[in-house]
Every structure is written in C-alpha cells, then in structure tokens.
Amino acid sequence: MLFAVSMTFIDQTIVSIAAPDIVNELGLSASGMQWVVNAYLLSLAAFFALGGRLADLFGPRRVVIVGTLVFVISSVLCGCVPKGDFAQTWMIIFRATQGLGAALLFPAALAVVVAVFPVERRGRALALFFGLSGALTAIGPLLGGWLTSWTWRAIFWVNVPVAVVALVLTMMARVPNRRRDEPLDGVGAVLIAVGMGVSVLGFQQAASWGWDSAATWACIVGGLAVLVVFWRYERGRRHPLVNLAVFRDKAFTVDSLVLFFAMLAFVPVFFFASVYAQVSLSASPNQAALYLLYFFAGFAIASQWGGRMLDKQGARGPMKIGTIVGAVGFALWANKLTDLSMHDQWPYVALAGAGIGFILAPASTDAVNRAIGASYGEVTGITQTVRNYAASVGLAVLGTILTHRTTENVVSTLTSRGVSSDTANGVAKDIAEAVTGNGDARTPTGTGPAASAARDAMSSVRMDFAEANQWVFYGMAIALGIGYLIALRHPGGKGPAVTEGEPRSAPATPASPSEDGHRTSSGRASGPAARPGGTPPTSAA
Description:
Layout: H1 2-26, H2 30-58, H3 60-79, H4 87-116, H5 119-148, H6 154-157, H7 159-172, H8 186-209, H9 214-235, H10 250-279, H11 285-313, H12 316-336, H13 342-370, H14 376-416, H15 421-437, H16 449-456, H17 458-487, H18 513-525
C-alpha cells in the first residue's frame, strides 16, 4: 500500500519544482500553470468521499488496482502533452484524472492498513504509514529537481515503474477484499462532488478573480449550499454515501477539525517554502528540495513518537503537543524568513515539521477507532475529504495573502527608486504573479525604465518576497493555534474497545461472505457510526 500511495504523495509537490520549465516549454500563462497544480487538488477534494465508499462496496483491493491504473495512465499522458494551443487544456484534463485516480486509491489503501492491524497496534502502524508517505512527499521536490534537469516530462513518467511495483505487490500480498452488498448512492456522489468541487474552485480562483468578484463568491457560496443540500439528503438515506452519524461522536468531530486546521498549513507549506527558497534564497530546485527535508526530519521522528503515544494513552496528548509545537515552530520560522539564510532557519523548519508529525497519524487513527462501527473505507474517505478540502482552502487563502503583500512591497521598493506609481504597480503585479504562480525567480527581462529598475531592485525584491511570506507562515501558526484550542475539547481515552467481529490480527486471506456479513452486522449494531433510524444490517446474501 505504501508503494501504491507513494505516487499520490510525490505528485503533490513534484510539479511545483518543474513549474518554470513547464511554463517555458509549453507557453502556459501563470494562471494556466496554477490550474495545472489546482486541477489535481480540486479532483482530490471532489472525489475522496466517493473513493472511500467504492472501497466498501467493491472491496479495497479492486479499488486500489483501478485507482493505480487511472493514476499511472494519466501520468503518462501528462508527460506526453503536445506543444501548441491545446497543451494547457491537455495538462489540466489529465492532472484532474490523476486526482481522480488518487482519490480512488488513497482511501482504499488506508482502509486496508486499518483493517489488517488490531486497534492496539494501529497507532504505530499508521504512524509508519504516514511517516513514510510524508517522507515520500519530501522526495517529490528533490526527485523533481533531478528529473527536471533531464526533462520535466520525466516527473510524470517516473510513476510508471512505481505503479508496476505497487500492482505486483498488491497481487502478491493477498490483500483482503471485504465488500458490502449495498447500492451506491449516485445522487449523493454527484452532490458532494459538485459541492466540494465548486466551492474549492472559488477559493482557488480568488487570487485571479479577486475576493470582490461575484464569480468567486458565487462558487464559494454556491458550493457550500450544495453541500448543505447533500447533508440534508444523506440524513434520510438508507444507504448514504457518507454516514453523517459518525459526527455525533465528539472525539471524531474534534479529530476532524484538528486535521482541518493542521492541513491548512501542511500541504501549502511545500509550495510556499519551495518558492521562497528559490526566490528569496536564490536556491536551485535541488537546494529548495533539501530545504524541505529539514521539515520532514522533524515530521518523521515526531510521527513515530505520536503513534506510540496514541497506542498507550490516546490521541488527546499528541494532538495537544503537535498543535502547540507546530504553532511555535511556524511562528519562529516566520520570524527568521527575512534572515535569508537557510542555515539559520533549519531548527525552526524541523520544529514546524515535528508539530505536524505529532498530529497527522494520531488524529487520523483516532477518527477511525472512534467510528469503528462504520466501514473503514467510508471513514477514511471522510477524513481525507476534510484534509484535502483544508489544503485547497489553505493554498487559496494564503496564496492570496502572499500575492497581495508581495505586490505592495515591490511597489514600495520601485517607487522609492523613482519609478512612477502606475508603472510600479504593473511591474509589481507581473513579478508577484510570476513568483507566486509558478515559482519563476529569474531576473525580469524587457526594455524601458520599469524593467531596468526591476532588474536593479531584484535583491530588494527578494527581501520583499521574504517579508510577504512572513504573513503566510504566521497564518499557518495561527491555524495550528486554533487547532490547539480545539484539541483541548477532545474527551481523551483510546476510543472504544474492539467490537464483536473486529479482526484482532491481520487476515491471511480475503474474508468469506459470511465473515463480511457478520462484521457488517456487528458494526451496524454498535458504536457512534451506526446507521440512523435503526437500519437493519445487510444480509450476507
């Protein structure tokens, strides 16, 4: 399963490193490149809940295989994009189908890991899962920098050998394929995909359309309205796409909210830190990747520690530690950004990573344990939807802040050097769009006094960008501070004991229909995730 999900983690960060080369070869606009990045996250957010439910209905092994194939075929097609007017559309379409493959693959893979480990060992197992998969996210920029020196297309083709290994190991491992004989809630699937997709689109495009644009708020409000309709529709369903009863458990709700605020920082930090390193520190793509490895040094150590704490005492402790350590780490990191020295920053980068490491596995695992009556695919689909929605919101809101502050700072620098206000605003907007849209930190080209002043002021612009990033990283610290206040509301404990029918050891072979029916029946009969209205268990037949 780690091989299977490694592709999805690598692709969250690898594209940002190659963005300038992709823009230059294909002639994409900065907004077009942002769409290439966003299409993947948008598709993830829209289809994660569906992926988790399909893992229950058709069995996680089948969904892992289908998701892997969709992902790797889309990767190959992204790498084969032709030059010309259709290039941007091609890239956006197949980045979106990549996201669909990841949305199918990840909840199913995580459900397998959850299912084969008993509750008392699940914390350490998922700490290892998230720790290694997180390390693979860090490899993305490093691998991207190395592959881009050959051709940026290789960042997509590298998924092919990984997918082959994943498929072979999945077949060899005799992965359990428990499934439920229930209908798929097609209307619910459409409603949540539209609601998530449209609202995330509004957040993503806010930087381009503007927060005062009617289109921005039409998407955000309209998408949230569709999600309200989805919530009301699901409450009356016999077999809903998402069993909303899981949120009646206070611990599950706290876990989900803490994950939401942690993910406002976790995924965005890869993009913002990478671009900061290349713009303000004048780092190469490879050096920017090494900068991010400090983050994962702290993340990997803390995730293992947090997993052991979860197994011994529950999730409340590691979540409280993680949110406060992360808030302090991001705040200290933000304070050091204007030093323009990677050497001076690494302790705070590692501290911020440690904070996220303490949170991620314990909160995700505790959510599954608390909702033990629900299916694993369903619950992991919910938590992953929350996580990716937060990542999209974080990228949008923090990206808008960064663009706004960068523009203001650059305008101030250029006007102080004698450039007129109108000209300075135009050049500042171009610079801000270039560095925040695709990480292009090269010296501005062109003729005229404005371009000349911009080239002369590049050293000051690098400081302007660092100061703008301080606002972003302080925002991440605030998000984790809010997460700490929420973690205080966690009821504590290790979650319910293993329910009847819950496997205490890894099954060696796929469960028989009778085992499936027994597990489903026991799960429905107890726990906070029992179906509302006393829905009878599905028969084994």
